[in-house]
Structures are given as structure tokens and as C-alpha cells.
Design brief:
The protein is α/β, with parallel strands linked by helices. The chain has two domains: 175 residues, Flavin prenyltransferase-like (Rossmann fold, 3-Layer(aba) Sandwich), CATH 3.40.50.1950; 210 residues, Rossmann fold. The chain is built from 13 helices and 23 strands. Helix 1 runs parallel beside helix 2 and helix 1 packs across helix 8. 41% of the residues are buried. It binds cytidine-5'-triphosphate. Cytidine-5'-triphosphate (CTP) binds next to helix 11 and strand 18.
């Protein structure tokens, strides 16, 4: 996941700088290209020679060397990710205020890639209100902060402020890069799509107009990002682009329910886009019903609610997404479904909106999140809607 990635490592003045050497070794071991920028103060803690040798690249430190200007803009654009580890209280304060009196800060200000910081300082400095405020500010600028650890500090005191271990920083780097690329490799996803057919007799059924197009587009989008996708598909005439998709064809709501319960264990993501029949005949005639009577009464019973069942089984780390197809009061029904089915996201589409709903190639959705978020999208082709839905899932997954 980190092979071939370009990692810019910023090292600032802190005792924890010795761990930067280990971090560089881990990054090089995993095949990353590493360039290091040191602040002048950090050279008292770890030498440029050590960092240059391990990173296999010259270490940069000065904005000007002789009559040469170090191109911080080029560095900021070269990197896939900029990691500042350790981050001292001093550099943190400068980042928070936008000061740029060294190469590391100038590069930070011009970086267009994600920035990760691993603070390191003594406990009292860590808890100082100025530090708390500076952290809040740089977080507000979109930087990701790797939490400090509790332990023995350089002062001899015990408490908060130790820089995270290099292995932990490596995990944060991998997660951030995966999030940036939208990669879902190693993740398992369960998707339902299409209608269900509830048999009345061997030749007749109760069904609906769902084509399966929306759910299939979501399954294909998840697979294109590297997820192992299990698509539980009701009767549909659509052709599925099979790469990375394990297809489970089903007919009835009961069959769909059984497969979903079995596959949900071990799934990271479940998107239930199927238009499952809410009712099924109590009796399924074994022979074709003959038209003897003028009136025929069918007794129906509720099917099992798959979304609700999975909501009850959901474990931390699993993301459950449901759909709501409404004709009126869409927003309030969607919000109700988030709660009543314990879903993380509900995708609302209204049959009242032109270009939304069954059978057609476009959709217009609003995605409601458990965190109170509400994202309204324009009418788009279903493939594009699938991208928006998967982007929202990925953001939540790596938040
Ligand atoms: N769903 C499900 N199992 C069912 C019925 C619905 O998993 N037996 C899922 C759908 O796939 C969708 C969501 O529940 O993700 C919403 O379905 P919908 O039919 O709109 O809502 P209901 O909960 O059935 O409520 P109502 O019919 O009253 O709107």
C-alpha cells in the first residue's frame, strides 16, 4: 500500500527525533521514496548524515544554501503525504499562525498533499492551553494529528506527550494514503440489489419495478476500488461486470435475508439497495391457481426486514447503509430509518423527483448520516451517484 509512495518527512527539535530514524527505516523497508526536511534545531538531536543515509536522499534544511534556493513548492507538490514527526511545540505554534522562517514551515504552507503530525513534548507543555488551541487550529486547517502516548518523558516525568511509536505512525500513513486513493483493498462489502419476487403460485409472483441498476452500480464501484464484493441480486435482467464481484442470485425476500445474515459477518460495509418486498403470500400454492372464482383474496404476511436485522447484528467498525425510496416527507422518513434500523447512512431518493427512481439511468439522492450530516446531490447517472455514495462511505470508514 505504501510501495512507490512519495513520503516527505519533517523532523523538528525534540528528543523523540531519534524515532524518526526508525520511521525512515520502516518506510524504506516498505518501498516508499523518502525525502527528509529538518528544522535547524532538530540537527542537535539527530544528524542529517544519519537521516540522509537511511532515506537514501540528501536531507534538506535551509531555505537558501549558498546562492541556491530550496524549492519548497516543488517539495510540497512532489509528496503524496507530508509527515511531521516529531512535531515540537515551537513548530506547532508556527504552523498554527502561518509563520515560515525555515524550509520545513515554508513547505508546510505550500503543501497540497495530506499533512500528518506526530506531536512530542513534555506533559505540561502538552496540556498548556496555548498548545491545545494550536492543535485545534491546525486540525481545523485539515491536518491529521497522531495522538501522543502516555509514558516516561525526557524530563523524567511520567505522563502524556510521548510521540507515537514509529509503527503507529506508519499505520496512520497507510490509512491516510488509502483514504486519499479511496482504496478499499482488503475490505469486504455486501450489497443487495434488484427486486424480490414473492411467489403466489408456480407461475405468478408479487414484485416491483426495481431494475437493480443502482445497487449493481454500487457493487461495481466498490469492486473497482479493491473491495471483495458480495452482491445479493434479486431477479434482474441487468448484466453485472463481474470483476471482483461474487454474485448471489436470489428470488425471494427470505432467500435474500438468509444470505445477507451469513455474509454480514466479516463484512466491513453493507449497502442495502434492494427493493425488498415488504409482504409475501402466507400460502404459496403448489399448483397454478385456476380462475374459478370472481374474487380472489390473497393473505399476505410481513417479510423480515433485512436492514433492521443487520442493524441489530452490527459491530463496531461495520458501516451499514440503507436506502429510502419515498413519495412524501422523504427527509423525516429517512431520518426515522437511520434510527429505527440502526443504519450509519441512509440514501434518500424521491419518486417525486424527475430523473430519480426505478428503471431509469439517473438518480438524485440525499445522503443522511448518523453524525447529523446531510449531503444533497444533483441528478446524475447512476454510476456517478454510486461514486458519491462510495466516497461518503470511504470518508466515514477512515474518519
Ligand atoms: N429493506 C430490507 N428488508 C426489507 C425491506 C426493506 O432490507 N424487508 C431495506 C431496503 O433495502 C432499504 C431500506 O430497507 O435499504 C428501506 O426500505 P423501504 O421499503 O423504503 O422502507 P421500509 O422500512 O420497508 O418502510 P416503508 O415501506 O414503511 O417505507
Amino acid at each position: 500500500m505504501i510501495q512507490g509512495k512519495k513520503i516527505l518527512l519533517g523532523v523538528t527539535g525534540s528528543i523523540a527525533a531519534y524515532k524518526s530514524l526508525l520511521l525512515v527505516r520502516l518506510l524504506i523497508r516498505d518501498g516508499a521514496a523518502v525525502r527528509v526536511i529538518q528544522t535547524p534545531a532538530s540537527r542537535d538531536f539527530v544528524t542529517p548524515l544519519s537521516l540522509a543515509t537511511l532515506s537514501k536522499n540528501p536531507v534538506l534544511s535551509d531555505l537558501f544554501a549558498g546562492d541556491t534556493w530550496a524549492n519548497h513548492v516543488e517539495l510540497g507538490r512532489w509528496a503524496d503525504i507530508f509527515v511531521i514527526a516529531p512535531l515540537s511545540a515551537n513548530t506547532l505554534a508556527r504552523m498554527a499562525t502561518g509563520l515560515c522562517d525555515n524550509l520545513l514551515l515554508a513547505t508546510y504552507l505550500s503543501a497540497v498533499c495530506p499533512v500528518l503530525v506526530a506531536p512530542a513534548m513534555d506533559e505540561d507543555m502538552w496540556h498548556h492551553p496555548a498548545t491545545r488551541e494550536n492543535l485545534r487550529r491546525i486540525q481545523g486547517y485539515g491536518n491529521r494529528i497522531i495522538p501522543v502516548e502516555k509514558g516516561e518523558l525526557a524530563s523524567g516525568l511520567y505522563g502524556d506527550g510521548r510521540m507515537a511509536e514509529p509503527e503507529t505512525i506508519l499505520e496512520f500513513i497507510k490509512t491516510t494514503l488509502a483514504e486519499k486513493s479511496g482504496s478499499l483493498s482488503g475490505k469486504k462489502a455486501l450489497v443487495t440489489a434488484g427486486p424480490t419476487h414473492e411467489a403466489i403460485d408456480p407461475v405468478r409472483f408479487i414484485g416491483n419495478h426495481s431494475s437493480g441498476k443502482m445497487g449493481i452500480a454500487i457493487a461495481e464501484e466498490l469492486a473497482s476500488r479493491g473491495a471483495e464484493v458480495h452482491l445479493v441480486l434479486g431477479p434482474s435482467s441487468q448484466v453485472v461486470d463481474g470483476a471482483g464481484i461474487i454474485l448471489h442470485p436470489v428470488t425471494s425476500a427470505e432467500e435474500m435475508h438468509q444470505i445477507c445474515v451469513a455474509e454480514f459477518a466479516g463484512a466491513d460495509i453493507a449497502v442495502l439497495a434492494a427493493a425488498v418486498a415488504d409482504y409475501t403470500p402466507v400460502e404459496k400454492a403448489s399448483e397454478k391457481i385456476k380462475k374459478k372464482e370472481d374474487r380472489l383474496v390473497l393473505e399476505l404476511t410481513k417479510t423480515k426486514d433485512i436492514l433492521k436485522t443487520l442493524g441489530g447484528l452490527k459491530k463496531p467498525g461495520q458501516t451499514l447503509v440503507g436506502f429510502a425510496l419515498e413519495t412524501t416527507n422523504g427527509r423525516s422518513y429517512a431520518l426515522d430509518k437511520l434510527q429505527s434500523k440502526n443504519a450509519d447512512l441512509i440514501v434518500l431518493n424521491s419518486l417525486r423527483d424527475e430523473g430519480a427512481g426505478f428503471g431509469i439511468d439517473t438518480n438524485k439522492v440525499t445522503i443522511f448520516g448518523r453524525d447529523g450530516s446531510e449531503l444533497a446531490f444533483e441528478k446524475k447517472p447512476k454510476q456517478q451517484v454510486a461514486k458519491d455514495i462510495v466516497d461518503t462511505i470511504v470518508k466515514r470508514l477512515y474518519a
